[in-house]
Amino acid sequence: MLQGPDELRAAVDDYLARLSLAPDLGRLQESMRYALESGGKRVRPVLCLAVSEAAGGEVEHVLPAAAAVELVHTFSLVHDDLPALDDDDERRGRPSAHVAFGEGVALLAGDALLAEALRLALTYDDQGVARELTEATLGMIGGQFRDITGDDADLAAVERLKTGKLLAAAVGLGLRAARVPEDEQGPWRTFGDELGLLYQIVDDILDGDGFAERLGMEGARRLADEAAANAHERLAAIPFDTSVLRGLVDELAVRTG
Amino acid sequence: MLQGPDELRAAVDDYLARLSLAPDLGRLQESMRYALESGGKRVRPVLCLAVSEAAGGEVEHVLPAAAAVELVHTFSLVHDDLPALDDDDERRGRPSAHVAFGEGVALLAGDALLAEALRLALTYDDQGVARELTEATLGMIGGQFRDITGDDADLAAVERLKTGKLLAAAVGLGLRAARVPEDEQGPWRTFGDELGLLYQIVDDILDGDGFAERLGMEGARRLADEAAANAHERLAAIPFDTSVLRGLVDELAVRTG
């Protein structure tokens, strides 16, 4: 019996709450935990767990990889919120890390979250876990750079890096943890790409920029429906019970925050 | 025939100049290369290469690990120089990365340097390379945190984290790349610890703080001579040609910058 999104989310929250961080970090851990416990929807780790479970993996075995993806995501939020980048004082209704702990501490907390993510990824015998996470992180940083410098005329390409890479890695790490052979990963990964696109379009609809700006709200909504339909089509071609993933697609398609 | 420190330094500089960074990073690479090419003494990678060569390793094989240590060091300098931490406008006589490229770009460049360091470490079959580098990075970040918050009364402990961990990792990665069995690494690693202490005392003598403040200049100088003598003693107990490492100890003991 597969676990539903809410159960998977609870498993992620529980794992993160119990996660031991490097003792050398001392009280820097407080700011890291503050950022980690900010009550997000855990989209990436839940996706990672759901893919892994659908592919026959054990939730216990994939949790460290799922958490690693969430730590990379959290590192990027902490650094993005800094005055040097987006200068956001709030994150999900609470003071951002740099407002709560000071800029210097938030900077170091972000650095440490990235390093801890790699430490988690390195607990697997399969070095591909850490490699894939590192590559995705580099892509994400490249997307952030293009975003702040306007260094790329192609908005879709920027967003594919900024958010798509890490979502795709969530799928990839789920497959690796479930030990799906590389030559059978194709359909799953294509699904991950469609889901990343869906996520981005809905983001833009909520923010009123990007795709929504370019295509208008209705056009963007149509594109989102199309991406959701494509994601479902990809799932239909996978000979496993993908019911939980279908639910995730629908959740992401209609999310409001 | 072992290569001397200058040859090893040239090998490091050459390797770093040719290093390919993730294409996804786009023009962020420029700021990363700027920071990497700041003309430092390459103490950590040269130490890594010298240890590996003395232990029977091939320079070609250890270069990625040595470069990874230097990338972690450079990441920490770029972030340390930011206004949120030390707010240093200059680094080795040139504008710091954030002065040359802006704060946001420097922040992302530091993040990317850390991720690239891990990518290099992950090119080895021995996952211990990436693990040791990650652990050292976490220790270093913990030391920086204690340094800015004054969160630790024990100055020596802070410095052991802040600079000692990465120097020790340089030794450790050199041993791993040379495939020295773990049960034969002890004497080398003890040497690394002594060298880290020496490095730190000389740093404090040059900056007039830390050990120099506590023991006075003469006292600190005596302690440095003692640490150098201890490092030589450790080397004498290692049944390999450690002549290049002896030269490095003497170089570090009398360095003026």
What can you tell me about this protein's structure?
The structure is a homodimer of 257-residue chains. Helices cover 73% and strands 2% of the residues of chain A. Chain A has 257 residues and is mainly alpha-helical. Chain A has one domain (5-254): Orthogonal Bundle (Farnesyl Diphosphate Synthase). In chain A, strand 1 and strand 2 (94-95) form a beta hairpin. Chain A is globular. Chains A and B meet through helix 6 and helix 7 of A and helix 6 and helix 7 of B.
Topology:
Two copies of one chain form a homodimer.
Chain A: H1 5-18, H2 28-36, H3 43-54, H4 59-81, E1 90-91, E2 94-95, H5 97-101, H6 103-121, H7 128-149, H8 155-177, H9 186-207, H10 211-236, H11 243-254
Antiparallel strand pairs in A: 1-2
Outline of the structure:
The first copy, chain A, has 257 residues and is mainly alpha-helical. The first copy, chain A, contains eleven helices and two strands.
Features:
homodimer, 257 residues, mainly alpha, Farnesyl Diphosphate Synthase, two-stranded antiparallel ribbon, 11 helices
